[in-house]
């Protein structure tokens, strides 16, 4: 099963490299992206948009990934939300868990774990 994946990441270089890596090493289809909290919430909560996985950064050009994650708490069964951040501290991990995040990964050293997560979903 190909994961229909939406990205909430404001850094174009990171986003493009992440998408390229996931396309090459897992069964992911990049269906779009948002660079701000408002854009991410609007897209992910629109019932006309079909997605399996949302990958959300915490620090965005405008707003916060935590707002995006909070807006996704009532997502459909089978939809997964993960956080990919350089700030995956214990406190951040706990807050994400409270908001219903399925997983959180550190950009600097947990990309392999992210890939494993994606492969397990397919």
From TrEMBL:
Transmembrane segments: none annotated. It holds the Pfam family Response_reg. Residues 4-122 form the Response regulatory domain. CDD domains: REC (cd00156). The keyword Mitochondrion does not apply. Keywords: Phosphoprotein. Signal peptide: none annotated. InterPro entries: CheY-like_superfamily, Sig_transdc_resp-reg_receiver. SMART domains: REC. It comes from the Bacteria. The modification 4-aspartylphosphate is found at residue 57. This is Response regulator. It comes from Comamonas avium. The lineage of its organism: Bacteria, Pseudomonadati, Pseudomonadota, Betaproteobacteria, Burkholderiales.
């Amino acid at each position: 099963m190909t994961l229909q994946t939406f990205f909430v990441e404001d850094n174009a270089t990171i986003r493009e490299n992440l998408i390229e890596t996931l396309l090459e090493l897992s069964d992911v289809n990049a269906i779009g992206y948002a660079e701000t909290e408002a854009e991410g919430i609007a897209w992910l909560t629109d019932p006309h948009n079909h997605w399996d996985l949302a990958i959300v950064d915490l620090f965005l050009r405008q707003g916060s990934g935590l707002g995006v994650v909070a807006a996704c708490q009532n997502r459909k069964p089978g939809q997964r939300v993960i956080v990919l951040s350089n700030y995956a501290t214990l406190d951040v991990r706990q807050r994400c868990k409270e908001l219903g995040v399925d997983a959180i990964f550190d950009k600097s050293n947990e990309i392999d774990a992210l890939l494993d997560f994606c492969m397990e979903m397919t």
